[in-house]
Amino acid sequence: MFLMNSHPDHHAPLDPRDSEMLGVAAATEVERFLTFRENSAPTPLVSLSGLASHLGVGSIHLKDEGQRLGLGSFKALGGSYTVIRLVLEEAGRRLGRSLDVSELHDPEVRAVARTMTFACATDGNHGRSVAQGAELVGARAAIFVHSHVSDERVAAIARFGAEMIRVDGTYDESVREAARVATENGWTIVSDTSWPGYERIPSLVMQGYTAIVHEALKALPEPPTHVFVQVGVGGIAAAVAAHFALALGSDRPFFVAVDPARAACMVESARAGRPVAVPPGEPTVMAMLDCYEPSLVAWRILSRVGDAFMTVDEEDAVAVMRRLASPLGGDPAVIAGESGGVGLAGLMRAACDPAIREALGLGPSSRIFVVNTEGATDPAKYEHHVGLSPTAVLARAAEPA
């Protein structure tokens, strides 16, 4: 499925709240926060010139978030950053003064953090980030996981000391249950999706993601002409689209939001012209994108600066995992989980479909930017799909040509 954005708000200025949260000044502050994190460094920007030649485009640059802060996904930027911000804000209220991130480990700040519990629902990666942030500041974390989250992903979250709570049903049902239990217990919900009356914290999560584009614009030889990013509830896609728009203005790239066909809540919202939920069906292999209701903030942004919406199928996601593991024309190998390469899968499908290719204006002068949003966060599933373990892929890539 492919749709050009026909919403009346398309090309309208971003809502002032979103401009403040996702602009250059905000990204600069996120970058400053990251300097206080252990093992923090810009993630690699990988040139895929062999694949670009194969697809008939000028260049493809991939930001590899599979190496972010030791957590294996871009989510490391959102949940933990938000936990830190909220602890500093609460400590500042109690202490009666403004606090800087440099004071995060002061005894009086940690004493406040010990009284706080942060909760969220997750497909795996966001919960790991919230749990890591809570451990970092000395707070508690309660993480809600739905029926389809693998035991391996649950274990990866639990190692940060979080309380793990299983919920029957889908991701969206776990979101509602997390909100209910947190409200009853006075916990702070750190969700990466928003709903009426709950927008600031998801916007802070998205603010963390602006580091991806902020870093990329420093490293790219030229700004991209086209960007393809996977959706889920929409946080990553909206943050990337908004920051490109705010940083580059009228020179912003053409932005394509890519959904799994089995969980196409943002595509269906674009079709309807308003946020809509889609009925749950068979789970998608793109587990981190197995979401059936879009974030309201993300929709507000993408209705303005999302230029096209499309879906990819199960085999597209697996094919891109294999292509990145066994690259073309001397390209470096990249470890991408089931959801990691979905934006690139969208590009590959679009480039091979004459009608979509023409609609997007893809050609030899096109400069493409995509994000690998996760590495092999479930190594067993990765090996099942690719036929090689992540270790084997890297070992093969290191062999002399």
From TrEMBL:
Domain Tryptophan synthase beta chain-like PALP: 41-371
GO molecular function, one term: diaminopropionate ammonia-lyase activity
EC number(s) from the headed UniProt entry: 4.3.1.15
UniProt keyword terms in alphabetical order: Lyase, Pyridoxal phosphate
Alphabetized Gene3D superfamilies for the sequence: 3.40.50.1100
Superkingdom of origin organism: Bacteria
TM stretches of this protein: none
Coiled-coil region: none
Annotated InterPro entries: DiNH2opropionate_NH3_lyase, TrpB-like_PALP, TrpB-like_PALP_sf
PANTHER family the record matches: DIAMINOPROPIONATE AMMONIA-LYASE, PTHR42937
Protein name: Diaminopropionate ammonia-lyase
Organism encoding this protein: Gellertiella hungarica
